[in-house]
Amino acid sequence: MLAKTKQEALSRLQKIEDSLANVNPNIRKYLEDDKLYYSYLTGGVLLGSIDTISYNPHYEAIVRKFEHDKGKFVYHVIETGDTLAFLYVTIPTDSMSEENQLYEWEEERLASVNSLIAYVYNLQNPSYSEFGYIGIDNFMDSGALVRIF
Questions:
Q1: What letter would DSSP give residue 114?
Q2: What is the pTM (predicted TM-score) of this model?
Q3: Which of 1, 2, 66, 144 has a C-alpha 20 to 30 A away from that of 43?
Q4: What is the domain partition of the chain in residue ranges?
Q5: For residue 110, which phi and psi values (nearest 5 degrees)?
């Protein structure tokens, strides 16, 4: 099941690349190699960058706990201020029908207005973390993704 989930994640990243100009294709390429990357702003919020989530062990621990606790496969993370937005695929369970899985996956995919359901983790107050729709874009043609709402 994890191989199918990973394929779905790669497909979602491809759709993001197709929808947004100049998204760094290494985000998808590295996921193919089982490396989770995250987008963040640096240089006084003038530059968009990507790096492996293990660059920040605290972030990696938060992501892995989320995946374990919620049954999700995170395929990209977007840091915005004091939040981390997890782009994810729900991992099918044995009790989930194929119809329910397809419905869940369809709900999680990128919409035509470049919005999707994500889990937004609040670094300052984790109890404020929640699932919801976010908008994404490419940051100033840097290749990094940014959350716009």
A1: S
A2: 0.94
A3: 66
A4: 2-139
A5: -60, 130
